[in-house]
Predict the structure of Microcin J25-processing protein McjB C-terminal domain-containing protein.
Amino acid sequence: MGEAKKRKDQAAAWRSSLSVDEQKVADVAQRLWSIFPAQGACYRTSLFLRYHLSKAHGIDGQAMVGFVNDGTDDLYSSHAWFEFNGSKTDLGLSRPLHPELQKVGPLLIHGKVVRPGWPWSYHATRPPAGLTAVRNMLAHPGTAAHMEAMEQLHLTMKATARSDELIRAYLDNAPDGLTYDVVARQVG
């Protein structure tokens, strides 16, 4: 019982150290993670946070489209997360698209590990070893088409993250019906 109280007290102390806007980021992110069921939705959740926090709450953060690495190889996967006041919020690594292939990362909300997971590293650009791995995959007939599609998706999402109009169109075209308005009503 003492350990649970200690964790609760630590969470309360962390929360009280946040500004009002940072608390709103944490609240919206926690609700979004709780109601959004999709695996591998790093782009959707990060873009949603960027758009929703700006439009509904006047909080201007950034949806970052970069790369993550699990430290076990030189593959740097395209990934998106949300940043505000220098702190990361990452809902996607805690629910990877292929958990049988990708290590489950932590649930990170405004810089705090809310649920532990594998410690991934974040990168705005791919380091040289990652670029070499991509070139090798593009040169191999068995992986070239998949790698080309992944590289194009990364570039598309990077451009989308810079435009409110493109973000809204992306969110409103959700194939599962969880459009911006549907999710926004649930998140608040």
